């Protein structure tokens, strides 16, 4: 059986012999770095993951369009289950880095640029990422597989239905839909956004809510995040929609982890990740319900 290392070495895109090295950090893909005579690259291994709505044709199209839009590194080569990107010398953000005001000043315009510019370069069919459909599908998958979290599913679905009603009609943009801190890289001159596994048309509120919840931004910062993104004062109606979508982003991350406990072969403590995100969701949901009563 051909190993991943052997497959990488056999790719026709290299100039000279290569010695791939594993790159840690991914919890959806197996990643490697490769140097050849022309530069340094990241090789991403990943098949379709239907239970997570990840389709690699979509990731590839989004990655290419994101490069053309000036948001992401260049795709050098792609074949079935493998994508080669130009390596960016820089520092991946962690949650603390995202929370720094100076970094947020760069992050929000980058997100806005991705949302509005990527569709201008996107080719071929594209997916829609509607978080409430994803949540319902995750629930069905967890029931089918008799998840250890089966007892939680009824109230999670009930809360998701209420959140979907609160979100209501939305503006559509091209979303990244997985704004974890580590998906931002600062090369010292500019910021890059990568990892388009879950890309698809969506409400901008999902990315904004995901950014805030994933990196645990202080609630006092949220109004500034929204006003910076929209470049105008924010109405109470939009604030409520945002708060509902922020809750939904946390629920999606929680249920993503529940499903990953069953299906993923990545060496990662998904059970712990599930528990962490479920606690965060419960806290955020209570805060949203309280704000509804006050309104």
Automatic annotation (TrEMBL):
Signal peptide segment: none
Q: List the InterPro entries hit by this protein, alphabetically.
A: Kinase-like_dom_sf
Which segments cross the bilayer?
none
Q: Which Pfam families match?
A: Choline_kinase (PF01633)
* Protein's recorded name: Phosphotransferase
Source species, please?
Answer: Kiloniella antarctica
């Amino acid at each position: 059986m051909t190993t991943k290392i052997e497959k990488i070495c056999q790719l026709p895109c290299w100039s000279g012999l290569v010695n791939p090295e594993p790159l840690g950090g991914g919890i959806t893909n197996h990643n490697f770095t490769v140097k050849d005579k022309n530069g340094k690259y990241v090789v991403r291994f990943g098949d379709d993951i239907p239970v997570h709505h990840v389709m690699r044709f979509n990731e590839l199209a989004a990655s290419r369009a994101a490069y053309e839009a000036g948001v992401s590194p260049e795709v050098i080569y792609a074949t079935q289950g493998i994508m080669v990107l130009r390596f960016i010398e820089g520092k991946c953000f962690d949650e603390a880095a995202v929370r720094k005001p100076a970094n947020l000043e760069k992050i929000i315009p980058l997100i806005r640029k991705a949302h509005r510019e990527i569709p201008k370069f996107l080719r071929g069919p594209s997916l829609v990422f509607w978080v409430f459909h994803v949540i319902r599908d995750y629930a069905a998958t967890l029931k089918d597989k008799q998840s250890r979290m089966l007892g939680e599913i009824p109230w999670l679905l009930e809360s998701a239905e209420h959140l979907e009603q609160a979100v209501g009609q939305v503006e559509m943009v091209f979303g990244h839909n997985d704004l974890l801190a580590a998906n931002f890289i600062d090369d010292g001159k500019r910021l890059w956004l990568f990892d388009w596994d879950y890309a698809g048309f969506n409400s901008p509120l999902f990315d904004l809510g995901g950014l805030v919840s994933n990196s645990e931004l202080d609630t006092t910062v949220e109004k500034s995040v929204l006003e910076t993104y929209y470049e105008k004062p924010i109405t109470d109606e939009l604030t409520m929609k945002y708060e509902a979508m922020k809750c939904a982003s946390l629920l999606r991350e929680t249920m993503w982890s529940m499903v990953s406990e069953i299906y993923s072969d990545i060496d990662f403590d998904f059970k712990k990740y599930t528990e962490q995100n479920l606690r965060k969701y419960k806290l955020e949901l209570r805060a949203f319900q309280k704000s509804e009563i006050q309104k």
